[in-house]
Amino acid sequence: MAGGSTLKGGRGKVKAVEPISAVDPQYVPDVPSASEIERKAQEWRKLNSKRYDTKRRMGFAEQEKSDMPPEHLRKIIKDHGDMSARKYRHDKRVYLGALKYVPHAVLKLLENMPMPWEQVREVPVL
Q1: Cα–Cα dist 95/78, whole Å
Q2: Alpha helices by DSSP H, 1-126
Q3: What is the pLDDT of residues 40-92, one digit of tens each?
Q4: N or C terminus: which one in the chain shows less Cβ crowding within 10 Å?
């Protein structure tokens, strides 16, 4: 493609963009020095340490949430296992919408199943 060539697009003509090396064969990209790379890395670490640090509200850090007891999870599954009850008539739509997440749930289930050579596998619940 020459300097002023155009390509036909769906909505008209589109100018072709040529790489800088084709325009100026003498072009050499600037290579940052080691000190500049170190400075940028330090700046990046500083920004992300603030960004991903423990969130503080009103001057103190919140405690991490504890895991749900297995009995509570079993009760939820038992209560919502049978959706034919009249009580859950309006919830059916929500559950049908949640079906798109089933493949991911199955993947996570397979990840957390113990391998044949493992006796027990401890897995965080929530």
Answers
A1: 15
A2: 20-23, 34-51, 70-80, 91-97, 102-112
A3: 999 988 888 877 776 666 666 666 667 778 888 888 878 777 777 777 777 77
A4: C
Whose CA is closest to 13, among 4, 22, 21? 4
Nearest-angstrom CA–CA distance, 29 and 112:
48
Q: Round to whole Å and give the CA distance between 66 and 68.
A: 7
pLDDT, position 111: 84
9: enclosing H helix or E strand: strand 6-9
pLDDT of residue 37: 92
For tokens 């059916």, what's the residue?
A: 92
Sequence-separated (6 or more) residues with CB below 8 Å from residue 22: none
What are the tokens at 5? 């060539």
Cα–Cα dist 113/89, whole Å: 33
14 contacts 6 by C-beta, under 8 angstroms: yes
